[in-house]
Amino acid sequence: MKGLLGFREKCISFSEEYGFILFPICKFAVAFAAFRMINASLGYMAQMNNLFLVLLMSLISAVTPVSIMVLLAGLLIVVQCYAIHLLVAVFMLVVFFLLYIFFLRFAPNMGLALILMPIACQIGVPSVLPVACGLLGGPAGVIGVCGGGVVYSALSVVIQNAPSLQKSTSSGSLSTMIQEALPLLTLLLDGLLKNAELMLMLIALAATLLIVYFVRRMSMDYSWHIAIVGGTLSYAVLILAGGFFMDMTVSLPQLLLSAAAAVAVGEGIRFFCFQVDYSSTQHLQFEDDEYYYYVKAVPKTAWLERQRQKRKQAAAQKKQAAVQRKQAQSRPAAVPSPGVQIAPASPAISAALEPPVQQRHPVSADPLEMPAVDFRDQLEETLRNIQDI
Amino acid sequence: MDVKRIRRMVKVERLICRDAREELKIARYYRSDYLGMMLLKNFFFITVGYMIIIGLYLAAKGDALLEGIYVADLTFMVTMGIGGYVLLLLVYSVLTYMICTLRFAKAKKLERYLDHQLELLQEDDHSEKDVKHPGRGTV
Questions:
Q1: Nearest to A278 by CA among A225, A213, A215, A212
Q2: Contacts of A101 in chain B (CB under 8 A)
Q3: How would you class A231 by CB atoms within 10 Å of its CB: exposed for 0-12, middle for 13-18, buried for 19 or more?
Q4: CA-to-CA distance for B45 and B92, rounded, in angstroms?
Q5: Residue ranges of domains in chain B
Q6: Angle at CA A302, nearest 5°, toward A297 and A304?
Q7: A355: left (phi over 0), alpha (psi -120 to 50) or beta
Q8: How far is it, in rounded angstroms, from Cα A117 to Cα A104?
Q9: Of the candidates A184, A206, A210, the residue with the CA atom closest to the CA atom of residue A84
Q10: CA atoms of A318 and B80, how far apart (whole Å)
Q11: In b/e form, how buried is each residue of B120-130, taking b as 16+ CB within 10 angstroms?
Q12: How confident is the model at residue A351, as a pLDDT?
């Protein structure tokens, strides 16, 4: 456990130190994966499949805000759809526009979820994203996750119907085009709106995210573990039940793989973002003029570890000072001759020779024993900080 | 070096340039102006979105819908269409109002916090000047 905590601390300090280069690299990787996925699944326009172009777009996405990445991905989808049929490109544009008007404008920071969700669906692990968003974000993540699900479903509809869509020509007179376009539009709209699988997926994604979010905010012990497992289970149960009642085929191995991936990613996030030691939980109760406070204080593991190390160091220093004092006592006392100056004692020795100062929090002799922490002091300090803010 | 002061300066700079950029833009408005602007924007968005939805629906199902239709059915359909629009507009207006009120309150809180931090920095500046020129103007 200590090794893992050390690894965590190293990772965090590394990301803090090299974040300026690490985050653009991550953005580049996400953008590259998204653009490659779009080209691999649609890929009807050969010019857009050029690796150099994909790399260039990924590079632009890496150094610009996430919204630019979303814009570029949308543009790529529309261009690829245009190669199938003009109407398909218009259909995708309308889907994006309606998504923005009715949902995405309320959650402008959900661009990354919107990009990652189709990638997760393509890999076959859609439950990873609601678990991750529920742990790291708020309920607004539902908009990004479900929006991503809609985009993936629209792409699937286009890919399924691409051969029949390609057969109809997009040239000729306007009336011919309209006559040919109407059945295609019906096909695409029915594929999206009468898609029971999409509806089920959206419900399961939204429910999972909300369950994870609300459970992890509870004050009970191991809330993050319960949130991860509960959210993943709820997703699996909803998909299985939906599949059973709606007569849909659900791939059980894929569902299990998705659940395992969601738990793994969730635990990874918990490891880096929420490390607490529930065994040292303290329950406090106090009052002021206006309120009674019932406080549960759970110490962070990293802080506890630092405290333990400090105590270890202090104990080692004390030991060393005691040994030096003994050595000094065993030596015959040298009488200083006049004119000879005695060198000042080392700080450790002088500290050991000083009369013991009464400590605010008494230190136990065992360095590995839990430190006595005054949570009341810490809480008051935190409240003061909050008031400052 | 006053580490506390440097930290405060970095925090203020980060807020102004990166983290609270959007919030500070919002905080420049009066509350009524901001909410009015957002509701107007919402009205245009919903109108356009509803028109697109109706257009798509008519394009896909128009032929089947208009087959053997009577005037009474047409009136009913138009009434339903307008009713749906009004309901959608109402729901989204309420949603926009709530979200924008929260956003505005958050932006104003952030602005107050920033002002407080800047005041503290200014106080630090003054006290530093006094230390540098303790006897200035007394002779």
A1: A225
A2: 45-46, 48-49
A3: buried
A4: 10
A5: 3-131
A6: 60
A7: beta
A8: 14
A9: A184
A10: 84
A11: eeeeeeeeeee
A12: 46
* A179 touching B (Cβ < 8 Å): no
Contacts of A113 (CB under 8 A, 6+ apart): A129, A133, A141, A144, A145, A147, A148
Phi-psi domain of A222 (left: phi exceeds 0; alpha: psi -120 through 50; beta: other): left
User: How many other C-beta atoms can be found within 10 angstroms of the C-beta atom of residue A119?
Assistant: 20
Token pair in block for residue B53: 């939805």
pLDDT tens per residue, range A169-178 = 556 666 777 7
Contacts of A231 (CB under 8 A, 6+ apart): A127, A130, A131, A134, A208, A209, A211, A212, A215, A262, A266
Say how far apart CA A262 and CA A230 lie, in whole Å: 11
Contact B95 A186 (CB under 8 A): no
- Tokens 């008519």, located at residue: B58
Nearest to B48 among A101, A106, A182 (CB): A101
What is the SS3 assignment for A175?
helix
Beta bridge partners of A283: A296
Q: How far apart are CA A266 and CA A275, in angstroms?
A: 13
Asked whether this complex has an ipTM greater than 0.95, the answer is no
Question: What are A197-218's pLDDT values in tens digits?
Answer: 899 999 999 999 999 999 999 9
- Quote the Cα angle for A122-A20-A75, to 5°: 40
Contact A186 B61 (CB under 8 A): yes
